[in-house]
Write a structure and sequence with these properties.
Chains A, B: Its EC number is 2.5.1.90. Two copies of one chain form a homodimer. By secondary structure, chain A is mainly alpha-helical. Chain A is built from 16 helices and two strands. Chain A has a single domain (18-335), classed as Orthogonal Bundle (Farnesyl Diphosphate Synthase), CATH 1.10.600. Helices cover 72% and strands 1% of the residues of chain A.
Chain lengths: 338, 338
């Protein structure tokens, strides 16, 4: 690589998802069993491809949100386990399709499924997991949860197409970019959190609170992820620093550096992002320009803004260990980078 | 092409889907409106890609099955229109993904979406249409219909992966092949027909009858389609004769010709299907070998077998114009080729 940027300062802060992990440990055991069971098939390639990604060490943040959001409202039963598994399958399906769309070689530090089994298997196993996700939701039988999650599925795909449509366009505004990440990332966080109070039959206000929490957490999460692409190490990231840059992705750090740049700098960005001249030397220059214009710092500032909204969304709710754990997730997401 | 095989004899028989089209014309008007509305999006690429395929002149047989199956049980309301549209969207999503998986250039005589907008758009717009299909089903609110259609979505994807796993394997048995086409084609026909009596709140027997009709019709339909790939003209087919051959697809005509072939003939098949040496001269030879072993004739005989079962599935039901129209569909499917 040759490019290492020190974003580690203060990284060892107190924020963690340890409490979330502890509170949801028993339920996540059930989720993990259900994942293995529902990714199973007599067609051997299906569990092979699915387990490659499922076992690759993602944090499983999204299903934990569903579990904690159900627990905090005293939900009793096993529907939260099924919906959490559905959420993880929707996410996994999206990753499988994303890797095909982005032509990615690595995901979480491992070869992508498409590199091992081909684009075809990635597309089709993604479709299978999406089908299984819907079957589990139907099994739960809550039309409201089905509505929330099926709408999220449409919105995610719509966001991905929008991202494709604005791809390599440096004139993308911040607002347009927020629309993309709201759809492609935040919508699933929002749905994952909202279905908790839904299956616990809670009030409209409480459902709206969890939805708002999830949506804003998702926005913060994605912005931090975009910032991390220009810092950190591949080991921490599970991807290579500069992947977005090499793929010509117009993320917020790029948008800010481009908009604030001199005419000469904009020529550099056009050449790198739109023309694809994005080698390691260019990446180093890109990171220097971002530092000059505080593009990373301000991306994190935007993430904090959404994190604050997520925090206030939960403010009116009764104090519970789950609420505290969900609040810590916000800090954790942002402290990944600062 | 240079290869034309005369399978036209008797093709102008009386069998048609005219009655089905007439009976469902008003409802199909509503379906077509809903298709345009639900394929709409502020993201312009979505309706562009979707309408390219939607307007390309498919017969829309599957949604007509849903409409006729609801009508024959006296269903009143508009849920059948929504479910029929969902079925068509599921089918369209599958086609978009299939074209990526098969790397197809042509579909129904037009360039495939992936050739115009790229694999990425085909994958993502397919995902969007699938999401929209589920939203419409949720809107209908029948958990039983949701169960049937979401199960079909999983099974279809599973069948596609199975097809991928056995791809280019000439040792595939007829039984294994039936499992593939049952999952990838017949499952959606079965679901499309079954949801008719489901939303009309009819008996278990009546639902089972329509399911069996759809499943067996789907099997017959796919077998005839596979036979047509070795005869007919590209104009009739909307695809090129020999597409399956050139892609090395192991369809029933190939399975029969291979199993019945001499050792020398099997060497030919291995070379063509497994090694991909499948030019026009090879195609001509393949068709000659199929004629020698009556592989096409016996593929049609298998199709008739399933068509007969589909016919008997409906036998106990009261005579209605819809029942007659559905019976005619069986003959129509088979008469496409003989």
């Amino acid at each position: 690589m040759g490019v290492v940027v020190n974003l580690d300062e203060g990284k060892k802060g107190s924020a963690s998802i340890r409490n979330l992990i502890e509170l949801t440990a028993a339920d996540m055991g059930a989720v993990n069993e259900l994942i293995l069971s529902k990714a199973g098939s007599d067609v051997a390639m299906i569990p092979e491809v699915a387990n490659h990604l499922i076992s690759s060490g993602g944090k499983r943040l999204r299903p934990m949100l569903t579990l904690a959001a159900a627990q905090m409202f005293g939900y009793q039963g096993d529907h939260h386990v099924k919906l959490a598994t559905s959420v993880e399958f929707m996410h996994t399906a999206t990753l499988l399709h994303d890797d095909v769309v982005d032509e990615s070689d690595l995901r979480r530090g491992k070869s992508t499924a498409r590199m091992i089994w081909g684009n075809q298997a990635s597309v089709l196993v993604g479709d299978f997991l999406l089908g299984q996700a819907f079957r589990m939701m139907v099994d739960v039988g809550s039309l409201e949860a089905l509505d929330i999650l099926s709408t999220a599925a449409s919105v995610i795909a719509e966001g991905e197409v929008l991202q494709l449509a604005v791809a390599k366009n440096l004139e993308t505004t911040e607002d347009e970019h927020f629309n993309v990440i709201k759809a492609k990332t935040a919508a699933l966080f929002a749905a994952a959190a909202e279905v908790g109070p839904v299956i616990a039959n809670r009030s409209k206000t409480e459902k709206a609170a969890l939805r708002s929490y999830g949506m804003n957490l998702g926005l913060a999460f994605q912005l931090v992820d975009d910032a991390l692409d220009y810092g950190g190490s591949a080991k921490d990231l599970g991807k290579n620093v500069g992947d977005d840059f090499r793929e010509g992705k117009v993320t917020l750090p790029v948008i800010l550096a481009y908009r604030r740049g001199s005419p000469e700098e904009r020529v550099f960005w056009k050449d790198a992002i739109e023309e694809g001249n994005a080698d390691d030397a260019k990446l180093e220059h890109a990171i220097a320009l971002m530092a000059k214009h505080n593009a990373i710092g301000d991306t994190i500032a935007r993430a904090r803004h959404f994190g604050d909204i997520a925090c206030d969304a939960l403010a009116p709710l009764d104090a519970t260990p789950q609420k505290d754990a969900l609040l810590e997730v916000i800090d954790f997401c942002i402290s990944r980078v600062v």
